[in-house]
Amino acid sequence: MKFFIQREEILPALQQAAQITSVKTGAVYLRSTWLKVENEQLRIMATDSNIEFFGIFSPQVKEDGLVGVNGRHLYDLIRKLSPGELQFFVDEKTSNLVIKQNKRKYVLPINENYWFQPLSTFPEENSISMLGETLSTIIDKVSYSVSDDDTLQAFNCMLIKFAKKDNKVDFCGLNGHQLALYKMEHEGLQGMLPEQGILISQKYLHELKRMIPFKEIELNILNNRFYCRSVDHKESISLPLSLYEYPDYNQLLAKYNSPNPSGMNINRMGLMDALDRILIFNTNNSMCTFFAFSEGMVQMDVQSEEKGEAKEFLDIVFQGDLKKIAFPTRDLIEILSHFSSENLHFHFTSPDGPCFIEDINDPDYKVLIMPMQISEDVVYTDIDSEI
What we know:
By secondary structure, the protein is an alpha+beta fold. It has three domains: 2-115, DNA Polymerase III, subunit A, domain 2 (DNA Polymerase III, Chain A, domain 2), CATH 3.10.150; 128-245, DNA Polymerase III, subunit A, domain 2 (DNA Polymerase III, Chain A, domain 2); 257-369, Roll (DNA Polymerase III, Chain A, domain 2), CATH 3.10.150.10. It has nine helices and 26 strands.
């Protein structure tokens, strides 16, 4: 094998490959980045046995071949080299990979080719396109509500499913006490999805978001795998889909139509700043912020023997009969950080029922959070008359 290529062209692909390969543990092919030169193309390939990565380039080819080297070591070397042309070739005498740049020369040991296992290629038929930035944003808005516990099966996955009721595709994360739902119109994605939808495990969502190009991408599904590649076909990743049965999240959404709801419009950043200060006073035994409502104002407070007491007051627009409610402070801050609107609407179904947090400017995104039970011995003080 022998080829010439610019360092800047292959560096991003080597980084993607290195980040899914192991440094020391596992089989040799799991620690390897494979370089395959064939038909005037260079393929950079890597897998952790679940996620698979392809990078396709057109170098100046002198000789075809296949080599596998330690992926992390190869990336560490290339990223520390100067911009410019690199020469790769195999030294037949020593069976090592030689990399040259000007007068610099580096030699890397090669793994035996019998360790190489062909990866699944992007299925061309019935693929659809969308913006990578859009998919990345949706994952960010939903994935934090997916459980991190692998033993919780479907709760450990993000659901992508076509909802016939409103003719949109649902992206849903549910962890038992919190639900995040993003809806979007996309005829191509709608047609590609099976009736039951698809499930992507939490452990793959972070990698998928990290590896998605922000430019236009192509997506496909085949043989219980999810495929994503850049529209120029230079980078492609695939990952396995989970096969659990997802809970009927529409039963939770139906609780929106409660008989006696209350509502609060509030400035998002003002609320986040107040909660961030309240968080200082939270402890393992006092993790919540307590909300008490009056006309035009909400009082937020926390009390703990270890850290003391905090009170915050914010102007709001409020409707309804709800007097008090409590939410885990840290969870609420996390939820608010994934909205972008200046003002949010809180739809309270009851003191102990689901609360729906909605983006006033984006009706397609909402988060459901369950309140904490308020003990009867919690004492609320009236809003100070001076405020």
